Amino acid sequence: MADTSTRRAGEIRHVPLLEPLIGDYEERCRTFGWEQARDLLAGLPDGGLNMAYEAVDRHAAGPLSDVVALRFLDRGVPTAELTYAELRRASDVVAVGLQALGVVPGDRVCTLLQRSPALYLTVLGTLKAGAVYCPLFPAFGPEPVCDRLSLGSVRVLVTDRLSYERKVAPFRARLPHLETVLLVDDDAAPTEGTASWDAMVASATDALDRSSFEIARTRPEQPALLHFTSGTTGRPKAAVHVHEAVVAHHVTAMWALDLRPGDVYWCTADPGWVTGTSYGIIGPLCRGVTVVTDSSDFDARRWYRVLQDQRVTVFYTAPTALRMLMRVGADLAHEHSFPALRHVVSVGEPLNPEAVVWGVEAFGMPVHDTWWQTETGAIMVSNFPGMPIRPGSMGRPVPGITAAVLERGPDGRAAVVDGHVHVLTEPDAVGELALRPGWPSMFRAYLDDPERYAQCFADGWYLSGDLARFDADGYGWFVGRADDVIKSAGHLIGPFEVESALMEHPAVAEVGVIGKPDPLAGEVVKAFVTLRAGYEPTPALQRELITFGRHRLGSVAPREIAFDQALPHTRSGKVMRRLLKARELGLPEGDLSTVEGQP
Ligand code: ATP
Ligand code: MG
């Protein structure tokens, strides 16, 4: 950050906005460096950097102070909103309240809450106090909640009484680090081991009226967020992110999500997942937009109403949600109109070409895919607005990101020979997707697991665990997770390709494919299919789908089709192929903590 040493505390540096990426991708790749992006941030005096300051305070002191920062909806109906100035004050109050509870920099603060003002204020207040914020999915059952509270040595939990009594109180003895549980919207007298959120807010407001609050002067490398991965491939890992990550949140929210002041933005991801934080809170607020958030789950009609009534301009969602909208049909979309909508974006799973194109039918614009991981902290590969989309492709690396595919060894992961890897340069060669470390939002550790962290790197690359290829024009294509790839009669089959082909059949709403051991072929492809409304799971349809697959895919087509009412998903909305496979083979189901619908 330029100039920080000469600024006084509280003084705001007004920074110019970098222009949109549109049109000059190649040029931007040549000229852009993360150092330059750091200069887009305000920064704190003496070289400090704090995510919450970048997201809120600097706007609160500038021309955006009266713009609505957060608007809360309950089943589509607005219930509360906060301007940037109000958000600054309200998050200061929470920071003061946390400090009064003894929270010091480095402590971990967790939420187990639905999307509500208290959740967002806890995130920002925690960062302002210099502590580390860790979200939990509100639908987690007692085991996953306690495991994560314990793994994270969480000191303060903000939740509601029902969740506390069901999911935490019976296990409190297992959680020696958990000093304070703040209960939101709770009129009952505090019980032992709990305190009232409202009372904390009231006394912190008094304290703030009497004296001023100064945001923690966090360093760029100081931990800010702790995020558990989705657990798609096994036991979730806790990725540590630092304040400097905000540089990448800001730049990618600008280039990949195309966010600018004046936008009304809706991200449907739950803040329990990294998307809900990086792009549900920090990134968009950095861009000075109005973030709308709806408190409840998927409902096609309500979702269209929110897009229409809130005049949403940028919409960030997930393939599984898009598939659910597709399942309902485009007619419902056409009962609404979205004149304000400019950009529709997706993340979390491969986005079937079918869904990209369906966006045109439903919204009047294609859906733009983005690829990234909990570990990368921010979008790494994207179909940028203004650039031609290739349906089915993840897009191109964010300027400043070097991505490549590495030759695989027998285990399907990048082969490391004498400490070296081999970068595949021929177009369309399939290998493990790898990134050159050094971008600001890269995770700095898996909590308490240095060995697992070390295994993510080889020969100067971060290894993603996903398989991909890059075409001759530099567009990346997702093939599958290294663990999910199927080997059949000498072919390597990426589940995504098979799933996308089956999605083109009008009866198919969603599909997950696995490899099933076969004495001849090694593995054969089996597909689990959910049907669209109006289709019956008959043997005739089974045969029809097998033939349909064979026409499109040839030898890699599924040999078996099973109909499933609903596929298992993670809470972040991904099809859990490992669970389909374990069930098929009668194997142990492994860590189920992140399965949707699990108690
Ligand atoms: P775990 O690491 O615990 O198994 P997870 O990998 O699903 O879970 P996340 O970090 O939430 O946890 O998800 C990142 C993964 O999601 C990526 O590695 C990739 O497999 C998948 N993914 C995300 N975006 C895309 C996309 N646009 N296309 C294809 N896959 C994607
Ligand atoms: Mg992962």
UniProtKB/TrEMBL annotation:
This is acetate--CoA ligase. One of its GO terms (molecular function) is ligase activity. PANTHER family: ACETYL-COENZYME A SYNTHETASE (PTHR24095), ACETYL-COENZYME A SYNTHETASE 1 (PTHR24095:SF14). Residues 497-574 form the AMP-binding enzyme C-terminal domain. Its EC number is 6.2.1.1. It is an enzyme of class 6 (ligase). The gene is acsA. Residues 66-446 form the AMP-dependent synthetase/ligase domain. Gene3D superfamilies: 3.30.300.30, N-terminal domain of ligase-like. Keywords: Acetylation, ATP-binding, Ligase, Nucleotide-binding. InterPro entries: AMP-bd_C (IPR025110), AMP-bd_C_sf (IPR045851), AMP-binding_CS (IPR020845), AMP-dep_synth/lig_dom (IPR000873), ANL_N_sf (IPR042099).
